[in-house]
Prior knowledge:
Number of strands: 6
Distance between the termini: 30 Å
CATH architecture: 3-Layer(aba) Sandwich
Largest sheet: 4 strands, mixed
CATH topology: Rossmann fold
Structural class: alpha/beta
Strand order of the largest sheet: 1-2-3-4
CATH class: Alpha Beta
Helix content: 25-40%
Number of domains: 1
Order of helices and strands: EHHHHEHHHEHHHEEEH
Shape: globular
Number of helices: 11
Amino acid sequence: MAGNNMCVVLETKVPECVNIITLIHEQTIFFFLDILEHFSPNLKGASEGIGTSDDVLIAGFNLANSGGFTGDLPSQAKELVNRIRAHHGVDMHNQWKFINIFVGSNDLCKVCQNQTLFGAEQYAKHLQETVRYLRDILPRTYVNIVPPFHVEVLLETQPDNPFCVDLQSLSCQCISEMPRKDFLEIKSAFDQTLDAFAAAEFQTRDFATAVSYGVNVDNIATLGKSLNLAFIALDCFHFSSMAHDIVAKIIWSDLFKPIKSRAPIEWSTFQPQLWKCPPE
């Protein structure tokens, strides 16, 4: 949904794990959907190309909008449910659904202008309202929440890349207009609201909610002593294709960790070439 999101309907049975090295040889850069499709080739709802979320034939169940805010989530969730209901190849009540929600980064970029509208309280309100709606409507669903990106780390790109100063002043002016300490306190407040999803109301017999903390890193990876700018897109704000590849592997890895042991990865020790495989 808002930000970067993907929702697909999984098969009832997941194929046995095969050698993931085959997938690595076939494709150098891939996304989380590619990993899921490797283990469940008959997924429904995947995007079929580049287009807007309004184009159902292209977007499928992907309701993500570039520049989206947390306040967009409730309406996106309703549209998602409508699309799942209308899909003739989906058994809504018996097939498992995986919903990934990555939202809040754009809220952080606007929080200095209006904390009431874009602050942690509204972030929590809209996110919880959305997950409750999905819980009440969609049985057999796993909701994976990715914390908002530490957008303040983008400032690290500016000293050696002057063009990023102008681009980031347009895409995320709050990282420059707020003291870093104040911004980090607000980001921490956003993250703390995610603890609520461990509550029983978000964990039922056929519905689960989890947070993928592995992606919640507060620094940019380095290449030697320099920033690895391959992680940042040319607009100095969004993830590059390579970053999407790494994020996909982090989210996948988190799925096999106990909730309480999930934590931001360390770039110095993270090994994206090592894969976790389903035990059965």
